[in-house]
Specification:
It is a single chain. Helices cover 8% and strands 43% of the residues. It is mostly beta strands. The relative contact order is 0.11.
Amino acid sequence: MQKLTSIIVFGLVFLLAACNLFAPVDPLVPQVSEVAILAVTNTSVKVSAQVADPDAKNSRQEKKSGKIQDFGFVYGILDQPTIENGYVEQGGQTITGSPYNWEDQITRLSSQEKYYIRVYAKNEGGGIIYGPVASFTTGNFVLPTLKTVSASGIKQTSADINYTISVANSNATVSNYGVCYSSTNQAPTVNDLKVQVTGTAKTGSYVANLPNLAPGTVYFARAYVTTNAGISYANVLTFTAGQPAVLKDTTFVMNYSNTYDLETGDIQSRNGTEDLYWYPYGQPAGIYPKNGAKFVVMPSGTDFKNLKYSDLTGLKYSVDFIDGSYTTKNNKLSNGTVVAYVTNVGHYGKMRINSKGADRSDTDVYSGNMEVSITTYNND
């Protein structure tokens, strides 16, 4: 009887799982961004936007939704334009990657007219979707020039976004400006979170402090200006709350008997910028810290890629020489070694010894070179 009960229970579980496996799934529509207004003239507008495949929950849902087969801009003088009541500027029928960004120039517009514009996208099974509506007014407008420069002062729940605005050649009237940001929208708009300043912008550098961030979360941020011609957006920056933006991430070769700047990964550009002197032979071989830069050799087996910024801040750094002798047991710079550092201006970073040559000889003058990978953080 107990065996029969077990078989029945097992059968019921199997049937429930089977029902769930073959239950119908709804197709999803693509994902689209708001339109960014890049330039406006009397009879044309330059715009950009982003489309992406739907975020399917499983392979069956993805298959039923299908691929994007048509996308672009729909615009007109009526709010909430659609394909049926507006004009269509097709962006394409397929995308080469997801998300996909593109720009377009829409011409033959009426002068001194207010237009409404938004993105549309269709896929094989999900029907059609429209993005948020943006607007612009045609005229001989030159929009301000924007640049999202950097993310700095990144803390667990806040960060500073540095950006520039140039209105030197602009004739558009600015009503507000600032930085918009999101943890989900890779092309954030003013419909997402934003730090906004009301009033006319001047040419110069600005800082927006983003509050109430979630620690460890990746954010996307960019500067914007709202004008009488429309909203213009700058480039997008990515940063992680609680972890500073990367100042330099590169791999390069340290040539023997040279000094290097770990802010740039280059031979120092001028005296005082160098962080170390790499000497591969003689006196003895190794890394000589310069200008107050500090180092610490991490334990054997440290994973360079997974070594986080937060792991670097609590280490005990030293200005002492690091033995890099090739032939002695004191060598601390064997291939695969990870070295943490603080540059001469106070930026934390990490360095991996990828490959190191043998002692320099008269016949092989390049054997003293050392290839390294570095990541330096902008923890200002």
